[in-house]
Amino acid sequence: MKKIKVGPNDIAFKEMGEGEAIVFLHGFCGSVTYWDKVAPVLSSDYHVILIDLRGHGNSKASDAPFTIDDMAKDIKEVLESLQIGQFYLFGHSLGGYITLSFVEHYPEKLKGYGLIHSTAFPDSEEAKEGRINSAKSIEKNGIQPFIDGLIPKLFSDDSLLNLKEEVESTRKVGYSTDSKAAQQTLLAMKARPDRTTVLENKSIPVLLVAGDQDKIISVDKAFSVEENHVVTKIIAESGHMSMLEKPDSLIKAIREFLHIEKN
């Protein structure tokens, strides 16, 4: 892992492979380790860059409030420091919200992008209330009880039974998330706007990936726009974590999308 300073925050990242650049952003209370089954395979053909979001993994965050747009700016700063020109950006869940902000503010930097188990829709009023309550719970009880409640929602029922190692590694990564940063990230997600119009920008190709057993982002929420420049892919027998539950299927979907864009 390498680090760069972005304002008061230390942003950690990892690189592997050579070729066209593809960047991966993990989800809430995750880290670059989410991509351990995906990145090494793709690095045989691409320059893969994995970034820990502020306050997650090996990245550090100040105590100051921040927005999804601030997190997108972190990504821009990292890639500029690496002198990366145009690239493909793939964001999982929270990473997808950051990806959409990046598309809105820095579209000239992208060859294409993907939302993996994510959505362009804003939070419902009920979901916003849930974010506030979760932030209060983390402040009062710490991060571990929150993660323990989150884990069963991330994986399909079969994965919870059969992928014990992946489930437990996800739990440990969640426990390592900075609790104050987690609270601020919850509030940032609550405040994010509707970005369905960003998805409708026909100048940038889009991949939308959904799990048919996702308990957090339904297929309908994931596939919020139907346009010719949008490729949709349902990962069978996967919950919210296809990169761990069905990595081969996710890799195939990404490779096919990249191949389409090259041709």
UniProtKB/TrEMBL annotation:
Gene3D superfamilies in alphabetical order: alpha/beta hydrolase
Domain AB hydrolase-1 residue range list: 21-247
Key words of the record: Hydrolase
Keyword ATP-binding recorded: no
Entries under InterPro entries matching the protein: AB_hydrolase_1 (IPR000073), AB_hydrolase_fold (IPR029058), AB_hydrolase_sf (IPR050266), Epox_hydrolase-like (IPR000639)
EC annotation from Swiss-Prot or TrEMBL: 3.1.1.24
GO CC annotation: membrane
Protein's UniProt name: 3-oxoadipate enol-lactonase 2
